[in-house]
Write a structure and sequence with these properties.
The protein is an alpha+beta fold. The protein is 54% helix and 17% strand.
């Protein structure tokens, strides 16, 4: 059963900044959580409505998280509380955005993607994550609950943590790093699947193997296409952070940029590998067909002399050699067997069998 989905065509003709959800509805209802933290304090809450985000923290940084992006009214409330531009709110609701970063006067808007690999059939599932990095707050919007940011929450809960004193910039870096690190696990799964297909091709290729290769190529191509903009995002954050990331955090961002380059290079290798798997599959099938045709050809060639002799002695002539000989049948069969044995020996010697 397919999930409810709102298409981009529903926005046709509407003015810019119109709040219309585009994409799949991946959770039945939206949920909200809040973390207020500083170097020496940490308060974590689960909220029941978007309006409860009102009010700035007494000190430190506020991290507000939203699961579920199908409620434009709740997003409008959050936009009013944090002063988000209508175009930012529109982009948050449109879950078909490419990964990007937009700079505004008081905040940065960053779009990231997280992925899950679904097996049988192999399929890449994408979720959009929107980050709004302000001077003393950070907003995250996700399509559905996930464990991607749970390690960051665990670090915030620990006392005397560098993350607590780093403000929104350090928190934003940590979340971006968590998303990028999740790609390594995804690539490992794709690599393992490619190895399984390779073993299957070399030992017992089946028609389903070809479908598996095409599914792998589709996942790798889609992931490669979506991750190329990520490199531009990280380069932009390193080049022009507009005061949201200090020089120390930019060093960490540079490390994440290196990770993204490594990921894209690995995807290039996987793409070449998947193309090679298709070539190996076609070669294996062709080789197997050649072996079967050769076996049939050898068998047909061996029985051709016997067919010739049977045809000769089956002709309707009154006078033929061996027709009246009591040993004629035995001699004919012996001749057929001798010729077949000689041909078998020749084929064996020439390694056709």
């Amino acid at each position: 059963m397919s999930k409810p989905r709102k298409l981009r065509s529903r926005k046709a003709g509407l003015p810019p900044g119109s709040l219309v959800h585009i994409g799949e509805i991946k959770t039945s209802e939206a949920s909200y959580s809040l973390i207020d933290f500083s170097r020496h304090s940490h308060v974590e809450k689960t909220l029941s409505a978007a309006g409860e985000f009102a009010g700035a923290p007494a000190q430190g940084t506020r991290w507000a998280n939203v699961y579920g992006l199908h409620d434009p009214q709740s997003l409008a409330t959050i936009g009013t509380l944090f002063g988000l531009h209508p175009l930012v709110q529109e982009d948050i609701l449109n879950t078909a955005q490419r990964q990007k970063v937009d700079s505004y006067e008081n905040y940065l808007y960053i779009v990231l993607h997280r992925y899950e690999l679904k097996h049988e059939p192999l399929e890449l599932q994408q979720d959009q994550i929107s980050l709004v990095v302000g001077r003393d707050f950070l907003l995250t919007f996700q399509e559905r609950p996930s464990k991607t940011f749970e390690p960051v929450r665990q670090r915030l809960r620990a006392e005397h943590n560098v993350l607590r004193g780093g403000g929104p910039g350090m928190l934003a870096y940590s979340l971006i790093d968590a998303v990028v690190d999740s790609y390594f696990s995804l690539i490992e799964q794709l690599g393992e699947h490619a190895e399984q297909l390779e073993n299957e091709i070399l030992h017992q290729a089946k028609p389903s193997t070809l479908e598996g290769i095409h599914q792998l190529k589709r996942c790798i191509s889609g992931l490669r296409r979506d991750l190329y903009p990520l490199r531009e995002v990280l380069a932009a954050l390193n080049r022009d952070a507009c005061g949201f990331f200090d020089s120390e955090i930019q060093l960490y961002l540079r490390d994440v940029y290196d990770h993204s380059v490594h990921i894209i290079e690995t995807l290039e290798d996987l793409r070449d590998l998947s193309t090679g798997l298709l070539d190996v599959y076609l070669s294996t099938v062709s080789h197997r067909l050649n072996l079967e045709v050769r076996t049939l050809t050898v068998a047909a060639t061996i029985f051709m002399p016997a067919t010739l002799l049977a045809g000769i002695f089956g002709m309707n002539f009154h006078t033929m050699p061996l027709l009246d000989n009591p040993e004629g049948f035995t001699l004919a069969l012996g001749g057929m067997g001798t010729i077949a044995a000689i041909m078998l020996a020749l084929f064996w010697r020439r390694k056709h069998l």
